[in-house]
Amino acid sequence: MIKISPSILSADFVRLADEIKAAEDAGAHMLHIDVMDGHFVPNINIGPAVVESIKKVTKLPLDVHLMIDDHDRYLRDFISAGSDMLTVHLEAAVHLHRSIQVIREAGVTAGVSINPATPVTSLSEILHDADMVLIMSVNPGFGGQEFIPGTLGKLRQLRKMISDGGHSVAVEVDGGINPANAKEVADAGADILVMGSAFFRSGDYNATMKKVNAVLGNA
Ligand code: DX5
Ligand code: ZN
Question: Is 204 noted as a catalytic residue in this protein?
């Protein structure tokens, strides 16, 4: 089954608990939480305190995507806030292997993300250690951007690297995904699809989940 991780970046923050409950009721498989610092990406949003509050109102696994410089300084805060999956950017990392170890040793699923201009070959030495790779299909920082088509080739190449190396690593794709392109992205090699604006701006979360589950062939 291909999993859907709605990104709260496009939710109504004033009604965040209700938005999360509605996503859970609609059958979302996890909840994607984007964390931006105004340095690594040109936007600022939430920190560990908000993750901790979200943890109290949902049973969904929290899929936390750090788009921040110096992530090592904050890993423990996001782990204790209740992250179930914690992803750092390769481009922001100095000692990526160590960051992944810290996350894994805490019993949290460790992800590594790459930007659209970063080649998948740069992941070759970390695939053995990471639990998940997050391929950005837009330039990180904002919701509602268009899916970059070149991502599909990167996904196929990544899938081959994973199978050739016998690695056990999940592939998540983030940015510009909607019910119309979800199947193509899944077929290229995604296990988890992030959906921000196409979910939270859809008006009817049940209908959106139903539609995307149907195109993906999810039972
Ligand atoms: C972009 C974020 C995404 C974003 C996706 O920087 O990492 O998770 O919320 O939003 P959509 O699905 O609208 O592209
Ligand atoms: Zn994200």
Answer: no
Is 28:5 a contact under the CB 8 Å cutoff? yes
Taking CB atoms and a 6 Å cutoff, what residues make up the pocket around ligand 1?
7, 9-10, 32, 34, 65, 138, 140-145, 174-177, 194-198
Measured distance CA(141)–CA(14) in Å, rounded: 20
174 alpha carbon – ligand 1 mean position (Å): 6
Tell me which DSSP letter residue 8 carries. G
| Sheet of 192-195, strand order | 3-6, 192-195, 170-174, 132-136, 109-114, 85-89, 62-67, 31-36
- Using DSSP, state whether 210 is helix, strand or coil: helix
Give the distance (Å) from ligand 1 centre to CA of residue 197: 7
Residue 210 Cα to chain centre, angstroms:
20
| CB proximity list for 15: less than 8 A, separation 6 or greater | none
pLDDT band, residue 219 (cuts 50/70/90): confident
pLDDT at 69 over 90: yes
